[in-house]
Specification:
DNA-binding (chains A, B), LacI family DNA-binding transcriptional regulator (chains A, B), Rossmann fold, transcription (chains A, B), DNA binding (chains A, B), 334 residues, alpha/beta, HTH_LacI (chains A, B), 434 Repressor (Amino-terminal Domain), homodimer, elongated, DNA-binding
DNA sequence: CTGAAAGCGCTTACAG
DNA sequence: CTGAAAGCGCTTACAG
């Protein structure tokens, strides 16, 4: 059973495929097709269940009504939630999203961009890895709308939407200091991307401003791709230092590993030991006591990304580059 | 800057596009192209960075090397994890995955199938909603490989991979009974899909087998699409009944709502009150005390799905329908 | 050993 | 008010 084509519809209606095409694309009025013909063709399309072949349309027009979304890991709840919000919003505007995970690998990211390119996606939303600058530049030179989100790249002039990681991290430390904490640890990763280094800078700057010494022994940078067990071991070792009275986890999955450690070594979170996690997670609200978190405004990020993409998609001329920095919110729980 | 086409490569190499096409598709030997020509063309392709236009290829061949994955909600960690595993495995075999969420709406599911159809995906992996039977039947009649997973549909003969929900639910209740529980509650949803009704049936059968009465007041069926606050209120009301000494939550998000209630009403989980949650979640391991869960073997489900899809994709003839039921595991924590 | 040509299903500039 | 025809970039049956 072969699918119907525009030719079949044209034959059934006794008109040319040109006429059918105009009607399908809402250009009937503009091309002054008579009302009778419009009605007849629409009825036949309706009855036959004909759906235009999008592949053929893409080949001809060079676009696809598809936006490519590249994230680090779709199974991370931060990305899963952002993806879902972006999908919803794009869908309402007639765009579909296809997404894929880079797993923080340049090669995989590059392959994904190539795949999207050869599928002629109309625009790219990318949570990039370092080293991808050149590939992104090529897309931009090609006049493809590109929005980076979550993490920016230093050597590139691209649209960007993300939270103010430096200031969120700074505020977290400030909060600890005001509660009288003296030995504040940071658990972060060794990936060299801005949204992580900014959290580190915020940590350092806050210590400096409040006259606390920076102590290397209190900073743990775990290797990005390592086993969780390895991470757990390293955190356990860090927590051997019982001077530590507060800790900021730079990502939600590090915080989860950290909480597992605390459970294992039976250290309780309370007045003597405070925790803040970067990026919320359902486990944090449920935890006893509740875990304070830095919350990025997911809804606002998704909305801004889609708005920027759509305005670029509908604009004939190249729009100026925009960087939108959205404040993150510190939620204190106990 | 227009992208290169096969024509450009043919011109540069002074051969026909037929020759280039054969070389790209690894048919050079079979078509006995001379080694010199192969080398020359491959060098030009390499140097120019030429990538074949997949859209054109799809239009011509009618397939796409893309598998469509339709889930209920990609931001649910069960689906996010399955999606990621399937993506990895498919990727290694040269297939890309595009995924999208139905949000349990027949209309959205139907639109997604149509979108995938018009994009000529090669195969479908679907976590279906009831009412989609006819649409799925059309795909199967069209000789498209289709695998349902997580939940099966009653009136349809399709390949299926999923956990044994009845027996997992039965075992959970058995576990409660053996611990001496008498008033075991069930919190589930009102969606009418097999994987949910089977959990309900398992609950009832276990009570029956162990001589416990079935008490309607102990079963809460919350409405699928309602606000979480509403769910929380209903669970709170259920827990007013302080005879209840154990509760099985039929999904992980219901369990999360339930744990929030327990925290609010300051009821502690322990000897007097036991909890089991269906589908694991990071929050459960971290919870104090740890929450026992029914774990579906994600890895095995993903692997089986991909295997079935690939064997259908590579088989010329229609393969017999297979239903693979994989046991779920009850993990007891405290 | 290699190529000319048809055709996949559309859109659109041009013609009348 | 409507249609014939070119062309998007490929693959492949056929011919030599």
């Amino acid at each position: 059973m072969k699918a119907l084509s525009i030719k079949d519809i044209a034959q059934k209606a006794n008109v040319s495929i040109t006429t059918v095409s105009f009607i399908i694309n809402g250009k009937a009025k503009e091309k002054s097709i008579s009302d009778g013909v419009i009605e007849k063709v629409e009825k036949i399309i309706e009855e036959s269940g004909y759906k235009p072949n999008q592949i053929a349309r893409s080949l001809r027009t060079g676009n696809s009504n598809i936006i490519g979304l590249i994230v680090e890991d779709i199974s991370n709840s931060f990305f899963a939630k952002i993806a879902r919000l972006i999908e919803d919003k794009a869908y309402k505007r007639g765009y579909k999203i296809i997404y894929s995970s880079t797993e923080n690998s340049i090669e995989k990211a590059r392959e994904l961009i190539n795949m999207f390119k050869s599928r002629k996606v109309d625009a790219y939303i990318i949570s990039p890895v370092k080293g991808l600058e050149e590939d992104i530049r090529v897309l931009i030179n090609d006049d493809k709308p590109v929005i980076l989100f979550d993490r920016n790249l230093e050597d590139i002039d691209a649209n960007y939407v993300g939270a103010n990681h430096f200031s969120a991290s700074y505020q977290s430390i400030e909060n600890f200091v005001q509660a009288g904490k003296k030995n504040i640890a940071l658990v972060t990763t060794d990936i060299d991307v801005l949204q992580i280094t900014e959290r580190y800078e915020g940590y350092k700057k806050a210590l400096l401003d409040y006259g606390l010494p920076y102590n290397e022994d209190l900073v743990l940078k775990v290797h990005f791709n390592q086993d969780e067990q390895e991470t757990i071991n390293q955190i356990k070792q860090l927590f051997n230092n019982d001077k530590i009275d507060a800790v900021l986890f730079a990502t939600n999955y590090l915080a989860i590993s950290g909480l597992k450690v605390l459970k294992q070594i039976r250290k309780t979170i309370g007045n003597d030991f405070s925790v803040i996690a970067y990026d919320d997670h359902e486990a944090f609200e449920l935890h006893t006591p509740g875990i304070s978190t830095v919350q990025q405004p997911l809804e606002e990020i998704a909305e801004t990304v889609i708005k920027l993409i759509l305005s670029q998609l509908s604009s004939k001329t190249k729009l100026p580059i925009q960087e939108v920095i959205i404040p993150a919110k510190l939620i204190i729980r106990d």
